[in-house]
Automatic annotation (TrEMBL):
<comment type="similarity">
    <text>Belongs to the aldehyde dehydrogenase family.</text>
</comment>
<protein>
    <submittedName>
        <fullName>Aldehyde dehydrogenase</fullName>
    </submittedName>
</protein>
<dbReference type="GO" id="GO:0016620">
    <property type="term" value="F:oxidoreductase activity, acting on the aldehyde or oxo group of donors, NAD or NADP as acceptor"/>
</dbReference>
<dbReference type="InterPro" id="IPR015590">
    <property type="entry name" value="Aldehyde_DH_dom"/>
</dbReference>
<dbReference type="InterPro" id="IPR016163">
    <property type="entry name" value="Ald_DH_C"/>
</dbReference>
<feature type="active site">
    <location>
        <position position="252"/>
    </location>
</feature>
<dbReference type="InterPro" id="IPR016161">
    <property type="entry name" value="Ald_DH/histidinol_DH"/>
</dbReference>
<dbReference type="InterPro" id="IPR029510">
    <property type="entry name" value="Ald_DH_CS_GLU"/>
</dbReference>
<feature type="domain" description="Aldehyde dehydrogenase">
    <location>
        <begin position="28"/>
        <end position="470"/>
    </location>
</feature>
<dbReference type="InterPro" id="IPR016162">
    <property type="entry name" value="Ald_DH_N"/>
</dbReference>
<dbReference type="Pfam" id="PF00171">
    <property type="entry name" value="Aldedh"/>
</dbReference>
<keyword id="KW-0560">Oxidoreductase</keyword>
Length: 479
């Protein structure tokens, strides 16, 4: 076993204020709800006091966005692009600061916030900046919708902000965005970046608060477009509340992805893919490969290698550059992971974790593997959203596909085989929005992302991601 000296990233690079207001019409203002605190989930230390937006505050933000829409939507695309390119460049310049802040507020390892989240955030702004003056070639018309109300979760706070804000602005919409209550800090730093980029007031408004604030954004009568990423339960509520209002909606909800490993796969690569699929970001990933489907003939060998590999993962301080597994984002999420894992044991699956010291303070859960899992078990059906892998076996490709599709979700899947014909045969039959071939959790702003069934509807990213923010509909064949 290796021992490393700690290599903590300095937090001096970020300046966290004791308290934050709402960002409305280009300025920070007080909220009239009851302020709340955000903590560092790795230490339970309070980071800052955050204003809560009431329905009246949300109304002011929507009014600001409505007013700004007139000039922003009339601006030539090439001019809007300049702002988006500027924002993208400032994100790159301040990426160390943003990465440290993300890891402090969310609990994710700095290695991931620095090397995955931040590069993708900047790439997303660059990508959609490039579309702003080329909308007529995308096939969805060039007319923006109006004011977008956007509600995002805590697992990729800044990345989900980028997925929502970049295409909305590129198409000429204005935005009222609500970050998750446990991770508001990078969205508020992004608000400062909007000021630094001289973005016209009201184009981006950030309202902080919990579910009630989110509901006020979604239900505001002057919001034209709703975009949500989060739980299937809240997604259902939102679908119901906007039904019949004429608001355009995209929902990106849960998942229970299968990672299918055929017997001819390159096993060491597959092991890396499995680890990346479920232990990246503590498994707080909607497209996480939470169900490993392994062909029976190689199951024992693969599990041995996987367990050996898991023994090398380092859990601990998210700001330590050696850390692979950071903190669970909140006490509530930890309780949910524990509850479902206990249910797995009670239902008869076998639980395994590597020897792994757990820090005294903060919220932690060791990497966990369940074998002997049946399709009927809760750990095979429900989204755990934690570092917990459920292993099932199969004998034939047909059985693999059937088991992979036997879920109410349909967001993503992974397939591991050296045979191109088997890869294509399998991918064709998987009911999942994204299928990764001999890789997992790979993202690119040019590639559309989204689900089937209870995983939601609409696509984010790529040319397809523009459709959600444009009012003109394209001729069917060009989609
Ligand atoms: P959540 O769906 O309650 O939270 C997501 C966002 O929605 C937050 O900003 C929250 O404040 C807001 N929200 C809550 N209630 C709302 C309402 N009635 N109207 C409008 N906005 C509302 O998810 P939560 O409780 O944080 O996590 C629960 C489970 O959801 C997780 O364990 C996980 O399984 C799943 N989840 C899935 C995500 C994904 O990326 N698809 C992200 C986060 C959670
Ligand atoms: Mg926090």
């Amino acid at each position: 076993m290796f021992e490393y000296a700690p290599a903590p990233e300095s937090r001096d690079v970020v300046d966290i204020k004791p308290s934050y207001g709402l960002f409305v019409n280009g300025e920070f203002v007080d909220g009239s709800g009851t302020a709340f605190k955000t903590i560092n989930p790795a230490s339970e230390e309070k980071l800052a006091e955050i204003a809560a937006a009431s329905a009246a505050d949300v109304d002011l933000a929507v009014q600001a966005a409505r007013k700004a829409f007139t000039t922003w939507s009339a601006m030539p695309g090439a001019e809007r692009a300049k702002y988006l390119f500027r924002i993208a460049r400032i994100i790159q310049e301040r990426s160390r600061e943003l990465a440290v802040l993300e890891s402090l507020d969310n609990g994710k390892p700095i290695r991931e916030s620095r090397d995955v989240d931040l590069p993708l955030v900047a790439a997303h702004f660059f990508y959609y900046a490039g579309w702003a003056d080329k909308l007529e070639y995308a096939g969805y018309g060039t007319r923006p919708i109006g004011v977008a109300g956007q509600v995002i979760p805590w697992n990729f706070p800044l990345l989900m902000l980028a997925w929502k804000i970049a295409p909305a602005l590129a198409c000429g919409n204005t935005v009222v965005l609500k970050p998750a209550e446990t991770t508001p800090l990078t969205a508020l730093l992004f608000a400062e970046i909007c000021q630094q980029a001289d973005l016209p007031p009201g184009v981006v408004n950030i309202v902080t608060g919990a579910g009630e604030t989110g509901a006020a954004v979604v239900n505001h009568p002057d919001v034209d477009k709703v975009a949500f990423t989060g739980s299937t339960e809240v997604g259902r509520l939102i679908a119901r509340s906007v039904a019949g209002t004429g608001k355009k909606v995209t929902l990106e909800l849960g998942g229970k992805a299968a990672n299918i490993v055929y017997e001819d796969a390159a096993l060491d690569q597959a092991v890396e893919g499995i680890v990346n699929g479920i232990f990246f970001n503590q498994g707080h990933v909607c497209c996480a490969g939470s169900r490993l489907l392994v062909q029976e003939s190689i199951a024992a060998e693969l599990l041995d290698s996987l367990k050996r590999r898991l023994g090398t993962l380092r859990l601990g301080d998210p700001l330590d550059k050696n850390t692979d597994i950071g903190a669970i984002n909140s006490a509530a999420q930890l309780a949910k992971i524990r509850e479902l894992s206990d249910a797995g044991e009670q239902e008869g699956a076998e639980r395994w974790s590597p020897a792994c010291a757990i820090p005294d303070r903060g919220f932690w859960f060791p990497p966990t593997v369940f074998t002997g899992v049946a399709q009927s078990h809760r750990i095979a059906r429900e989204e755990i959203f934690g570092p917990v892998l459920s292993v099932l076996t199969f004998r034939t490709p047909g059985e693999a596909v059937e088991k992979a599709n036997n879920t109410p979700f349909g967001l993503s899947a992974g397939v591991w085989t050296e045979k191109a014909s088997l890869m294509l045969w399998t991918a064709d039959r998987l009911r999942a929005g994204v299928v990764w071939s001999n890789t997992f959790n790979r993202f690119d702003p040019a590639s559309p992302f989204g689900g089937y069934k209870e995983s939601g509807y609409g696509r984010e990213g790529g040319r397809h991601g523009l459709e959600a923010y444009l009012a003109g509909s394209a001729p069917r064949e060009s989609r």
